[in-house]
UniProtKB/TrEMBL annotation:
Highest taxon listed in the record's lineage: Eukaryota
Matches recorded under PANTHER family: OS01G0750732 PROTEIN, SERINE_THREONINE-PROTEIN KINASE PBL7 ISOFORM X1-RELATED
InterPro entries in the record: Kinase-like_dom_sf, Prot_kinase_dom, Protein_kinase_ATP_BS, Ser-Thr/Tyr_kinase_cat_dom, Ser/Thr_kinase_AS
The protein's name in its UniProt record: Probable serine/threonine-protein kinase PBL7
Chain positions recorded as ATP binding sites: 125
Biased composition (Polar residues): 378-393
Gene: LOC113743510
Protein kinase domain: residues covered: 90-370
Region Disordered, residue ranges: 373-393
Protein family (similarity comment): Belongs to the protein kinase superfamily.
Amino acid sequence: MEAENDEYKRKEHLVLVTILVFASLAIASLLVAFSYYCYIRNKVSRRLEKARKTVANEEKASSFANIQVATQKGLQVFTFKQLHSATGGFGKSNIIGHGAFGSVYRGVLQNGRKVAIKLMDSAGKQGEEEFKVEVELLSRLHSPYLLLLIGYCSESNHKLLVYEFMANGGLQEHLYPISGSNNVSSSLDWDTRLCIALEAAKGLEYLHEHVSPPVIHRDFKSSNILLDRNFHAKVSDFGLAKLGSEKVGGHVSTRVLGTQGYVAPEYALTGHLTTKSDVYSYGIVLLELLTGRVPVDMKRPPGEGVLVSWALPRLTDREKVLEIMDLRLDGQYSMKDVIQIAAIAAMCVQPEADYRPLMADVVQSLVPLVKNHRPTSRAGSCSSFHGPQSPKV
């Protein structure tokens, strides 16, 4: 009996030892597994951090490289001191315009050349992005219908862009007075408006048709059409520009930016951006040239506050189209011209993007109208500009 008890105790002890051994092995395995997990996690974290730093450094290097390339392509690099001197210390009397991300000053370089200098606001990521886009794009785009970027300054927080000077300012200032503007506005005659419409169209045509991939301006409006001393028009302000899709009918998705009254409805609703978005904005500018009205003015009588909604039903009606014409034109136009321009505007502002024409079609429609006119208020003529070049961007 006693032998049996000893045997039972021995077996019980053996089972207990076996359980303890297995438990210890399990705990040891868990500790090893946990240690290995920590090791792998730490190693992956270091790799991710290294990758992030590499990408950040590459982006910085890319931005720097882009600016270096821009310099090699003819852009001048100015010091802040040079531009401070050129603008008389950025005096208020030299302010000729205000943009979303800074003020524009009249300046004179040491060689006597007149320039326009945009001083970017130091605050804001969007302003920094606009600066990079303008330098990178305008260093590669070359057309007589685009505003020439002469150079830039990038010293610490100072970001400045130096453009050719356009003596007659923005188209907007001549169509309707701007409160507080230093520029003297003048009423544009019909022939001059036709030429401006054609040259602005050629600017967009160059961006859409002669550049690969196409460039979408995204903020095309009358204030971004600048006029030189002979009233030649050039498209300006490319801070919001985007590279479009290379696929026919394709789009790029982006957050909605632009100016109220000029933004295409499908872009505003979906964020899908195409060259047809610019075509819509161009149609609004054509309406401004016809009517002398701003795109949105809720102080007007009911039904007339939104220019496109008020004008569109009248554009294709021979009798009603005269109701929208700018009174300052004083009937100096022919009905044939008016009907043709109104028809082009109507096509450009169609709610459905697919129904809008290409800018090449718009140019082709405008050329015969302008050729039949010889502007008397301009020293130059629309045909005096040279054809565009076709870079890759």
